[in-house]
Design a protein that fits this description.
The chain is α/β, with parallel strands linked by helices. The protein folds into three domains: about 130 residues, Beta Polymerase, domain 2 (2-Layer Sandwich); about 130 residues, NAD(P)-binding Rossmann-like Domain (Rossmann fold), CATH 3.40.50; about 80 residues. The protein has 14 helices and eight strands. The chain has a six-stranded parallel β-sheet with strand order 5-4-3-6-7-8.
């Protein structure tokens, strides 16, 4: 993507979305929208993204999930099940930040606000229960494992950026290199990088030729490092952890350079043996997503149960007036007894459709269950 997504401008483009949230991770953007017109909201989003990239084909780089699938996906993301490295620890904080930022902007309300809160809690619980996620499970750690294999002899290393992945890489390299540069816009080294030699972004191209290993993870509009910057005889390993890409693809054609990008690291991660409790973790996330979506449908996305209550109360009040009128003069106590009887009857009658709505039915989706209730109790009304 040529330009960084601006959440504020994005909100202005989503005229068909009632709620929105932007989740930015190390290798992708995810947009969460609530809309009564999903196609119109999706079209607005694609129009905004095409304005960033100046490419009509931007839609082919995205996929769209709806309803339960979207809820399940966010829960999996928070749990680290959709990360390049399963259990990657940074993503949970990113999910939490996305929910908070959207709520502060007033874009996460009755649906996205509880969705992101629940996703964070599910992610925390699944990671703790099934042993997913630690600094050792990070994308940065996978990158440094790759460097250890393909370039074990390294004296001069340059890290571009000062984010979490760069700090993790520096921690692993400490004591194992003779010189470590950190390129940053900052005037002082951030915590955890004080022992490194701080250089400016303007120095990256000049120093790149002398480095054995270069790791970049920063936000740039265009590639920061090109083939011209790395030409020569000295063997180099370059790791591109940035999004958008920090290193030009032309670097891959240099005979002296081994380039590892996010796709390469994803292939490495896929070749690892699966975690022992991964199936249990996935089943737990699926169960949590189904339960939350059921609650969401019943309390936020459908008026079926509320309509049934309203219908039953209207019938009760009508019959109460008719009964009291037929009884003639009645004491306040007698009226209270009749009214209480009516409320008990309503409560007992409503218990069955409510139980039907809340019970899991393998052959019916949540929407289908509530549609049936609306059809039976709501006359010609159809829930969308």
């Amino acid at each position: 993507m040529a330009k960084k997504v601006d959440a504020g401008r994005l909100v202005g483009a989503l005229v068909a979305a009632e709620e929105s949230a932007l989740l930015s991770t190390c290798n992708r953007y995810e947009f969460y929208l609530v809309s009564k017109s999903p196609d119109a909201a999706s079209a607005g989003l694609m129009s905004y993204l095409r304005g960033l990239t100046s490419r009509d084909s931007v839609g082919s780089e995205f996929y769209q999930l709806n309803g339960l699938d979207a809820v399940s996906h966010l829960f999996r993301v928070a749990s680290g099940l959709e990360s390049v490295v399963v259990g990657e620890p940074q993503i949970l904080a990113q999910v939490r930040a996305a929910g908070v930022e959207s709520r502060v902007r007033g874009e996460a309300k009755g649906i996205l606000s509880p969705l992101f809160d629940r996703a964070y809690r599910v992610g925390s619980r699944v990671r703790s229960t099934y042993g997913l996620g630690s600094d050792e499970a990070s994308l940065s750690d996978l990158a440094m494992e790759a460097v250890d294999r393909v370039h074990p002899e390294r004296q001069v290393v340059m890290l571009v950026g000062t984010g979490k992945m760069i700090r993790l890489a520096a921690r692993r390299l400490k004591g194992n290199v003779s010189r470590l540069y950190v390129a940053s816009r900052r005037k002082r080294s951030p915590a955890g990088l004080e022992w490194c030699r701080l250089v400016r972004y303007a120095d990256v191209k000049r120093l790149a030729k002398s480095c054995d290993v270069l790791v970049s993870a920063t936000s740039v509009k265009r590639p920061l490092i090109t083939a011209t910057d790395l030409e020569g005889r000295k063997p180099k390993t370059v790791v591109d952890l940035g999004m958008p890409r920090n290193v030009s693809e032309s670097v891959r054609g240099l005979p002296n350079v081994r380039l590892l990008d996010l796709d390469d690291l994803a292939a490495m991660a896929a070749s690892r043996p699966p975690l022992a409790r991964l199936p249990e973790a996935e089943a737990a996330v699926s169960k949590e997503a189904t339960e939350f979506y059921s609650w969401l449908i019943q309390t936020r996305l459908s008026t079926a149960l509320a309509d049934i209550y309203s219908w039953a109360e209207a019938v009760r009040e009508e019959e109460l007036r008719r009964a009291v009128g037929r009884l003639g003069p009645a004491s306040a106590r007698e009226k209270r007894i009749v009214e209480a009887m009516g409320r008990r009857i309503v409560s007992k009658l409503i218990a069955r459709p409510v139980g039907f709505a809340r019970k899991k039915h393998p052959d019916l989706t949540e929407e289908e269950k509530l549609y049936l209730l609306s059809a039976v109790f709501g006359g010609d009304r159809r829930e969308g």
